[in-house]
Amino acid sequence: MIDFRYHLVSLVAVFLALAVGIILGAGPLADPIGDTLTGQVDKLREDRNQLNDQLTQAQSRINVQDQTVEQFAPRIFNGLLQGTGVALVVLPDAEAEDVKSVSEIVTAAGGSVNAQINLQDSFFAPAKQAYRDALSGQIRQYLTDTARATTPESTLAAAIGQLIFTGQNDSLSGILTVEETPLIQVANPATQPARSAIIVGSGPLKPQNEKQQKASEKRTKSIVEFAQTLNTFASGVVLYGSAQGENDLLTKVRAGGNPVPTVDGIGTKTSLLSLPFALVARMNGTAGAWGSEQKASALVPPFMEVPAPPAPTEAPAAPVDSPAPQ
């Protein structure tokens, strides 16, 4: 059994150690400890300042490179997309600044943005699947070609394709923009049928928990089917986004071997420079995974010229009556 003397000795030892520490800290060890800590703080401050300077210099170089690309872009394009109508289809998580940059680069290449449709969260949200399933039957009634509309997702994609590639349809857009649960926002109605389109996505996905990741996988699957269907219209589409992470949209598209052309590095000037060339490559029947991120097949698209638009289908000439025999 532990007696009182044991407790007394323990308390004395504790206070003795405390007293020795105070004496040493305030006496012979005070200066060395203080000098050491001061030196470490000064070194950390110096390292921080050096890193800030390096970051400032790196950002300055990036800004100069971006300005150089902007000034050379019109000369590089040399009217590449002259007379070509391009539609923008904006995914729900796309940044407004990226959409603006895409529109500007199309214009710099000589093309025109003649339609912009912003897809809302409800267009792909798993929680709205039942609503989209019910709506797809109604949408089919307004499609001029129902061959693509094999699932609710492809039906919605066919509706978007009809709006931007064949011309505005008030009844169809009215169904998709119903006030209670709008699936799209028509930011710029199609003034004339587009020849090609750019699907504008987002940057790298942020870290997700297990539940968020499962929902994201379902959403990505729907987006991939949407892009595949839209790619069958006119001269097709180019998907612009990120392939930095394993779960990023472009990484998933490329991993599945889908024929949808992609350009990664969204938000960078070099990726914007590739977009017009990617559109022209798609018009010529070439699909690639262009950029420097995961599963890219080439750094830049091939340099091609815009092919002549398909000739309109002409009605057969009326038969000419043979002259009556004399």
Brief overview, please?
The chain has 326 residues and is an alpha/beta fold. It has nine helices and seven strands.
Key terms for this structure?
MctB; 326 residues; coiled coil; disordered C terminus; Rossmann fold; alpha/beta; 7-stranded mixed beta sheet; 49% helix; 10% strand; 2 domains; Copper transporter
Average pLDDT works out at: 84
By DSSP, the count of extended strands is 7
Largest sheet: 7 strands, mixed
CATH superfamily of the largest domain: Response regulator
Shape: elongated
Beta percentage is 5-15%
Q: What is the CATH third-level topology name of the largest domain? A: Rossmann fold
Identify the strand order in the major beta sheet: 3-2-1-4-5-6-7
Low-confidence stretches: 313-326
Structural class: alpha/beta
Element-level helix/strand string: HHEHEHHHEEHEHEHE
Helical fraction: 40-55%
User: What CATH architecture of the largest domain would you give?
Assistant: 3-Layer(aba) Sandwich
Distance between the termini: 144 Å
Under CATH at level 1, the class of the largest domain stands as Alpha Beta
